[in-house]
């Protein structure tokens, strides 16, 4: 579903090399987490996949089609939900349908998504009436409303407290299992990466490249309690931590 070949990207007229030859394949329906030292190019990689940034060289294809700009096959979630305060939750989630030319079944899609995200009773509320975690869930619904095949998430739960974050990981696992999307999620949290991912990609310090591709073969659905007691967990966490520490990350 996502194929990246020898992707290179620099800024400042070539003086800042952000990505140096990224190779990555992500299969349909796979959940992949990307971790790496601060500034290694994770957000740059996601923005290129989302069609929001161009790149210097290499190939980037989604479902076999080269990325040339934003696509309705891709939903994007950032650290802040950025809901429009003057619209209800339902209207916020439905916004991409209005902007991109609505479909008749749009309203059903919105209510089904709100239900899946545990926001069924909050469709008529305004963003200020929701907790941070609920706003982020609404942001995920908005990213999914046009039924994209791919969901790209950049530190989606980075601004939430630890317990809310754990609950959000559970919710996201549930939404992903219900929708079968291909997900690429960037995180600074090793435990979040192991909890969510089929594979954890560890990037090198800038200029970013793929340092290690680690499979997480822990059965689903995973829970916050069972994940850390799984026999694979300590070795995986140690491997990732070691790779990051070697790159100068705390
Ligand atoms: N628009 C830009 N102009 C110049 N340099 C940029 C620009 N965007 C990113 N960079 C540089 O490219 C590098 C990669 O940035 P990026 O935001 O992708 O890293 P990141 O891994 O997502 O970082 P973090 O984990 O801290 O969010 C950094 O050194 C950054 O300063």
Tell me briefly what this model is.
One of its GO terms (molecular function) is ATP hydrolysis activity. This protein has eight helices and ten strands.
Report the portion of residues in β strands: 15-25%
State the name of the first-level CATH class of the largest domain: Alpha Beta
What share of residues is helical?
Answer: 25-40%
CATH topology name of the largest domain: Rossmann fold
Cross-sheet strand order for the largest sheet: 6-7-8-3-9-10
Weakly predicted, low-confidence segments: none
Class by alpha and beta content: alpha/beta
**CATH architecture classification name of the largest domain:** 3-Layer(aba) Sandwich
How many alpha or pi helices? 8
Determine the mean pLDDT: 92
List the main descriptive attributes of the protein structure presented here.
250 residues; Rossmann fold; six-stranded mixed β-sheet; four-stranded antiparallel β-sheet; binds adenosine-5'-triphosphate; ABC_transporter-like_CS; nucleotide-binding
Question: Would you write up a description of this structure?
Answer:
Keywords: ATP-binding, Nucleotide-binding, Transport. The structure is a single chain. The protein has 250 residues and is α/β, with parallel strands linked by helices. The chain has two domains: 2-73 and 148-246, 3-Layer(aba) Sandwich (Rossmann fold); 83-147, no CATH class. Helix content is 35%, strand content 24%. The protein has eight helices and ten strands. The strands form two sheets. Strands 6-7-8-3-9-10 form a six-stranded mixed beta sheet, sandwiched between helices. Helix 5 links the parallel strand 7 and strand 8. Helix 2 (89-99) crosses helix 3 and helix 2 (89-99) runs parallel beside helix 4. The radius of gyration is 18 Å and the shape is globular. It starts with a strand and ends with a helix. The structure holds adenosine-5'-triphosphate. Adenosine-5'-triphosphate is lined by residues 11-12, 16, 18, 36, 38-44, 206.
